[in-house]
Design a protein that fits this description.
heterodimer, A: alpha/beta, Rossmann fold, Heat Shock Protein 90, 3 domains, five-stranded mixed β-sheet, 10 helices, 10 strands, 15% strand, B: alpha/beta, five-stranded parallel β-sheet, 45% helix, 17% strand, globular
Chain lengths: 382, 146
């Protein structure tokens, strides 16, 4: 309440007392400005006619201060002509005017509206602050999470690298003593066979065989651990030639088992040839191995389904029971004893890893006792 | 001319710390047809000492080099040989258990003349050494200029 006449202030107080608000008096425009600097007000009741600094001048200054820029003002004037003059420049501001003498009830209602407006504005401001704080908190949490994830993925990359190096070193350091064991055993059994009984020689044979199996295991584990680490970039691979090469490596088994291996037309595609060759080698090798009593019959083929090449390696061997389908791809998993079929349970895990590295899938169809077909896909765009 | 070359005894430096491997290498080298003297050392330090001693005199005609050696390893010996003008012409065959691509690449980058992985099987092992002997000490060896 800004008025130079104490009497007017008193009557304002009397009218507004019932609103249960803090009523603050100011005897001049200057005092009003000082108070407005210190506190937020719901509304200013401003007498237009005051000495030194009149209400209009005061209002101009109120509007220039940051804190009171939006504080509603109700001008109180005795001059009926002044409203248009008073409201100039405040078109957008919260400005009202009342002609003195005012009707108490009207004044009270007007002030009440502004008080409510102020309270609502305060609420919104508080909500905004809360929202901003929680936004900031959220951003900070997201930032921290992202940083955490980055660190973790760096850790992961590093531990992958470590693992690969470890595997390479371990394979070398494990191979060397194994080769030494093997060489000494071979020397023993060869240089002086007469020193040993038949049983001794059998024992030595078992140790030599175990060492050989362990060597195979180390090599397979090494290839398994190396898939996807420091790999070569995919190149154009003629799968027909690749499979021919694989068959060359399997020639001994094929001849020994009098196997019949037929190849359908095979495509050229982009892949890591050394890895893809291992997939064919394992799948064809398995088809030759799990052949049952008859001579193995193996068909290798490929079909284009529009988005990917689907390769197949089919045999007419012993087959796999349906509830074992998933198990065959697990590391070290074997369905037969070593005496029945040799192997270390790594071959198909390796195939799976390699195919997945090429963004493909591997699966099988089988009828127990009738034969198995392994499928794997390589997408056109790898 | 051919007879004159044949008459010359070659020298092979074998750098190998595993006793059984050394034994097999020596047996295989001795079985080879080329006349030769063999010097065997069991670490890189001895290898370099032997080479430096001979730097201004007779040089070995072949170095058979293991990679994993105590103190100074095979890579260091290889690097030292191939950066020394007095030694760089000596053929170095790396003969190691390793079959890691990274080792192969690193050895060739350092200037190795050949990289042979020690075969697991005893016969194949000796066969590999005999092959190396025949090729690198033989008359048809490509580095011997008329």
């Amino acid at each position: 309440m800004v008025d130079d006449e104490a009497r007017n202030l008193l009557s304002l107080e009397a009218v507004l007392g019932g609103l249960d608000q803090d009523l603050v008096r100011a005897g001049s425009g200057k005092e009003a400005l000082r108070l407005l600097e210190q506190e937020d007000f719901s509304v200013v009741l401003l007498d237009v006619h005051m000495p030194v600094m009149d209400g209009i001048e005061t209002a101009d200054l109120i509007r220039t201060r940051e804190r009171s820029r939006c504080t509603p003002i109700i001008f109180l004037t005795a001059d009926e002509r002044s409203p248009s003059q008073v409201s100039r420049g405040y078109e957008s501001g919260a400005v009202e005017y009342l002609i003195k003498p005012f009707v108490p009830d009207v004044l009270r209602q007007k002030v009440k509206v502004f008080i409510e407006l102020f309270q609502k504005t305060e609420e919104i401001r508080c909500l905004n602050v809360e929202l901003r704080d929680s936004n900031a908190g959220l951003e900070e949490r997201v930032f921290e999470r992202t940083k955490d994830l980055e660190l973790r993925s760096q850790d992961l990359a590093r531990s992958n690298q470590d693992l690969a190096q470890f595997a390479a070193a371990a394979s070398h350091d494990l191979q060397e003593p194994l080769r030494t064991i093997n060489t000494y055993l071979q020397l023993l059994s060869r240089d002086s066979p007469e020193r040993f009984t038949a049983e001794d020689r059998e024992t030595i044979g078992i140790v030599i065989d175990s060492a050989r199996r362990m060597r195979q295991l180390i090599n397979d584990l090494l290839s398994f651990s190396q898939v996807g680490i420091g790999g070569q970039a995919p190149v154009a691979v003629d799968c027909g030639l690749l499979v021919d090469q694989v068959l060359g490596q399997l020639k001994e088994v094929i001849d020994e088992k009098k196997a019949e291996v037929t190849l359908g037309p095979l495509p050229a595609l982009r892949a890591e040839p050394a890895l893809l060759g291992q997939v064919f080698q394992n799948l064809i090798g398995n088809a030759l191995k799990f052949c049952g009593d008859g001579a193995p019959v193996v068909r290798v083929g490929a079909a284009d389904n529009g988005v990917e090449w689907v390769f197949s390696v089919a045999d007419q061997g012993i087959g796999i029971e349906a509830d074992q389908f998933d198990k065959v791809f697990k590391l070290f998993s074997r369905l037969h004893s070593r005496d029945e079929y040799p192997g270390n349970g790594l071959g198909l895990s390796l195939c799976k890893k390699i195919v997945e590295r090429h963004a493909g899938r591997i699966w099988l169809e089988s009828r127990f006792g009738r034969g198995t077909t392994f499928f794997f896909s390589i997408p056109h765009k790898g | 001319m051919a007879n004159a070359v044949l008459a010359v005894s070659k020298e092979v430096l074998v750098v190998e710390d595993t006793a059984i491997d050394l034994r097999m290498i020596l047996a295989a080298l001795n079985a080879g047809a080329n006349r030769k003297t063999i010097t065997a050392v069991t670490d890189g330090e001895q290898a370099l000492a032997h080479l430096n001693l001979q730097a201004h005199g007779a040089k070995p005609d072949l170095i058979l080099l293991d990679l994993n050696l105590p103190r100074i390893d095979g890579w260091q010996v290889l690097g030292a040989c191939k950066t020394d003008p007095a030694l760089k012409a000596i053929p170095v065959v790396v003969f190691t258990t390793s079959l890691a691509d990274s080792d192969v690449k690193r050895c060739y980058a350092l200037g190795a003349n050949s990289f042979v992985t020690k075969p697991y099987d005893m016969d194949a092992f000796q066969g590999a050494v005999e092959m190396i002997e025949r090729y690198w000490l033989g008359l048809s060896a490509p580095w011997i200029r008329s």
